[in-house]
Specification:
heterodimer; A: about 270 residues; 10 strands; B: about 250 residues
């Protein structure tokens, strides 16, 4: 069991968050309804919910990319009004690498935006490319990398900014099952010595269980927090843990909570132009 | 052993020139209409030696470079401006595409009246020709930018200026270069047309005056020179296109 002291000040706090989008001329679509949650420092919390339930929207709001229509987000006590690149980075489902830049230049990108000294930058790029296991691939273009490797570069780019909070929006969702498990293991390994706070969006129960300290179950759209489940599984967690009886018990419990939401089978939200 | 492609292309060219020589020498077509390749070469050597070609080619090159530069500056500028906001793009892009579809040649008589028979009217005409493909391709290039990259960049704190320089501009570059290539080719067509229609000098003027005295060998030779100009320019663009899209991976 991992012992953990929750600081009084949560790293991320959502208070009565609401988000709706205008649809057509007079309608609105409610994506997020009154979501409140707290993520403690160094916690890894998963948002688990049916696809299209608004979990990515929540993450985009925390990242400061979208503004909520109601409620607020606080990060380390401050209200989020826009991107906070020194505190938060986000990794998306697509690697979003700049295709005209080589792997190492992609990792440099965020540091260049921050105006980091070139010498320091080179050190950070090397450090984080090694950390994600890409030594030897520095000079590859994204078109020459596999999906898993491209996502590793994206992870290195985010980690190189050395923010205390990392948001992950289904980062391994586009990868095959095996690559996905391996990258999940890597993420846990990296987290174990970088002490980061992570908010992880997924629709895979197994992935959420494998990685999280807590799993928050979201309802079908509009999103509400339906359940908050602390995962007391042994650490370090390996892929093999998935076959243990405790893991299965959690899985059943989460499934039962999620099942009703999946059955509501709400269609994908209308893309907002 | 693998035969290089350029070798095949040269062989094809030589075969074509050889056939031309043979067909013309048996004179099933009157030599006034179809001179032999060798006659064409002799004729054009004379034009080169007398300095006549040099004089007219320089005029055409001056017009071509000037109109290309003007078209590039205004085309790229207008393209990025129009693409920058949704309102401008939705208002102006259809108008631009419509104007592009109009045969611009119809306005040349007016331009010749306004700007005279000198280089100015050709430069203006060539610029108009070159402007449209450059502007429309710039807009298309901006539109091809992956929105997710912009989101990523924004999340890392990029300003709009940095998003433009680090994401939008490089995304648009390959399409933009294609636009510059078409712009140059069209400007050349416009200039030659302008020179043939009403002018005092240039390659088009020379072609027109030679054809009026039925000097076919000279006309063919001059057409060859014109082709050479545009082939060299396009080869330069080929290199630029390859360089600018090397990141697309193994071809």
């Amino acid at each position: 069991m991992r012992g953990r002291t929750l600081l009084t000040e949560p790293a991320i706090e959502l208070r009565n968050l609401k988000k709706s989008y205008p649809v057509g001329n007079d309608g609105t679509i409610e994506v997020v309804r009154d979501v409140s949650l707290r993520v403690g420092a160094r916690e890894l919390v998963s948002l688990l919910g049916p696809s299209g339930c608004g979990k990515s929207t929540i993450l985009a709001i925390v990242a400061g990319l979208t503004s909520p229509t109601g409620g607020e987000v606080r990060v380390n006590g401050d209200r989020v009004e826009g991107p906070r690149p020194t505190e938060i980075t986000i990794v998306f489902q697509e690697p979003n690498l700049l295709p005209w830049r080589r792997a190492d230049q992609n990792v440099r990108y965020g540091l260049e935006l921050r105006g980091v000294d070139p010498k320091v930058m080179n050190g950070l790029v090397k450090k984080y490319l090694n950390l994600v296991g890409l030594q030897g691939f520095e000079k590859y273009y994204p078109s020459q990398l596999s999906g898993g490797m491209a996502q590793r570069v994206a992870l290195a780019r985010a980690l190189a900014l050395e923010t205390s909070i990392v948001l992950l929006d289904e980062p391994f969702g586009a990868l095959d099952e095996n690559t996905r498990s391996i990258l999940g293991d890597e993420l846990l390994r990296i987290k174990s010595f970088t002490e980061k706070t992570m908010l992880f969006v997924t629709h895979s129960i197994e992935e959420a269980l494998h990685l999280s300290d807590r799993v928050l179950i979201l309802s079908a759209r509009p999103a509400r927090v339906k359940d908050d489940i602390r995962i007391n599984l042994e650490t370090p967690r390996t892929v093999e843990l998935r076959w243990s009886p405790e893991f299965q018990e959690y899985k059943v419990r989460i499934w039962q909570s999620l099942k009703d939401e999946l059955e509501r089978d709400v269609p994908e939200p209308v893309a907002n132009r | 052993m693998k035969i290089p492609i350029w070798l095949g292309q040269i062989a094809l060219l030589l075969t074509f020139l050889g056939l031309w020589e043979i067909v013309a020498s048996i004179e099933i077509i009157s030599p006034v209409l179809l001179p032999r390749f060798s006659q064409t070469i002799i004729s054009i050597s004379g034009v080169v030696a007398s300095g006549e070609l040099n004089y007219h080619l320089l005029i055409t090159m001056e017009e071509l470079l000037s109109s290309f530069l003007i078209a590039a500056v205004f085309g790229i500028g207008a393209g990025f401006l129009i693409a920058s906001t949704k309102l401008l793009r939705e208002t102006l892009e259809p108008i631009l595409l419509l104007l592009f579809a109009i045969p611009i040649a119809v306005v040349y008589p007016l331009i010749a009246v306004w700007f005279g028979l000198g280089v100015e009217s050709k430069i203006l005409f060539g610029s108009i020709y070159g402007f449209f493909p450059i502007a429309t391709n710039t807009i298309a290039g901006v539109r091809s930018t992956n929105k997710s990259l912009m989101k990523m960049s924004k999340s890392m704190g990029a300003s709009s200026t940095r998003i433009f320089t680090s994401i939008i501009f490089p995304s648009a570059t390959p399409t933009l270069i294609t636009g510059l290539r078409s712009g140059l080719n069209l400007a050349f067509i416009g200039i030659i047309f302008g020179e043939m229609f009403a002018s005092l000098g240039g390659l088009g003027f020379l072609i027109n005056s030679s054809s009026q005295v039925l000097d076919s060998a000279k006309v063919f030779g001059l057409i060859g020179i014109g082709l050479l100009v545009i082939v060299i320019a396009n080869l330069a663009f080929n290199r630029l296109e390859i360089r600018s899209s090397r990141w697309r991976g193994e071809l």
